[in-house]
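User: I'm putting together notes for a lab meeting next week and I want to include a structural view of one of the chains we've been expressing. I don't have a solved structure, so I'd like a prediction I can at least talk through. The sequence is below, exactly as it appears in our construct file.
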Amino acid sequence: MLKINIFILGVTKKNEDYPFFHIFRPMFNLHIKDVTFSVVDVETTGLRPTYERIIEIGIVRYRNGEIIDSFQSFVNPGRSISTFITNYTGISDDMVEDAPYFEEILPKLQDYFDGTVLAGHNLQFDMGFIRAEFQRAGNPGFRPIKVCTLKLARRMYPFLKSKSLSNVAAHLKVRSAGAHRAIYDAETTARVLDRMLKAKISENPDFRLNDLIAFETSAKPTPARLQVNQNLVETISSVPDAPGVYYFLDRTNKPVYIGKAKSLRDRLKSYFSGTAPSKSKKLLRTAKKLKIEPCNTELTAFLTEAEMIKALKPKHNVMLREYGNKYYLRMRRDIPFPRPEIASSFDFDGNDYFGLFVSRKKAQQVLEIIDKAFQLRECKESELKKGRRCYLAEIERCTAPCENKNQDLYSEEIRAVYDFLEGKNNDRLSLLISKMKRLSDALLFEQAGELKAVIELMLAQIHKSSLLSEPVNAANVLVLVDGQTAQDFILFLEGKVYIKDYLLSDSREFFNALDDYFAGVIQTYSVPDDEDLEKLKICMNWMIKNKNQIKTYYLKNYRSKEELFSLVSKMKKTASPEGEYIFDIKDVINEFEQ
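Assistant: Thanks for the context. Below is the predicted structure for the 594-residue chain, given as structure tokens.
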């Protein structure tokens, strides 16, 4: 019997490129559940296969929802590995020194790839290196059937901003055991492929390998173009290049969609461009009018959008229709040795509240930093009362108030936590860095590594920390928000929020609140409601990301409203264009090309 010893496993769209295509034709007609995939990932010394080499290869055999086998091997590249690659992959020269060269594992790889479809995420990169290594080993005919999950993701999940393996895996709820190691990435890719294939089978129960390859390589459909009335180009261009809110209205002038924009002019142009997204086209087909309201800054555009969606509930707005969950870190002041705890609301109960956090997970992350970086107790009240020293005191993670009852020592630690929550804490960071160095010098590398991770988390949190240097329920501060051509003034009074010249409120509320503060008037009825807290959450999240655009003025530092305004007025800019713009959509669009 004649044995054809040519390593060809598949084809692309052009079958004539493969002279033995007829031998493998039955494979292309296999139901996708009967196809075995070799999901591969490689780690390399660099990015160019012509000059760089493979240092690790991982392969996972997958068929019909199951991982049936796997193979992993380090590969000796015959050269040193750069420090950057070692830091990125965790693979060092020592790890590959005794590893086989690629030609030594070639027979094993041929066994794995034989009769399978090669798959990978951004497979073009891996294939470039694998082909180069096969060629160096004397087998230049490596031309497998290929399936790339990156290309599939672009077809199946165009809405994802990033189609990286980690992002696609997170979208599909696939957990990864690790990253930037070949076998872990290959396993993750196999599970991502499994989710994708199940989705295609649900659409077509008779889904076959031919169908998968045709789907991956098919061109994306060309979006229908909008024909814009050129006579109104000047009208569109007359919309201010300013932040604002826009409303798509139906024939009864009821909003069907509300959105915000950093630049109204740019956003309007995007809706009426020839390549507008399908969502934009749908709105333009169903809506009758478009109303636009400029705002002074992007922040008040955010606030207006959120408030109007909740009030009017347009049918095409999914997000922001209800008030979201809010979380705080509460520090009790009615007990001698408090510890921070997560709360889902705040009250005027004499305790201090820090936040707000958009999710319990975010609040939990900050609480974990506090537990690891500061010496507050973590025990329950019942354990504290027993008066027995615990393990945390032994490792200097607690001042042991259960034993020493030292209120002053514990209060110092509380003050340090407050500094951290207010975006400060250089002293504590210095102490932790010194402790990490002592552990490293004592060859306690594991403990030093754990402390290094805490320091990095702490630095990241200080950068993201709330801009208020007071608990949120006690902060009395005027915030100047600097826009491109105009400004907003937002007043926080113990959780209440007032905005000067706000589209949705009377400006007298802003000035009356300031007058009451400096006059010492106690507004017992003025308790923050859901609307205030929602505004506070939006403001905090925006200000953290745009620190360079805000300036804070703590009211306790000024004797009167006039003294405060005399300083603030020096920074005042001209206001944004006022009024609203309304367009009849049928006047802007001539027709749709179907």
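A couple of points you could mention at the meeting. The two ends are 58 Å apart (CA to CA). The chain has a mean pLDDT of 78.

User: Perfect, that's what I needed.
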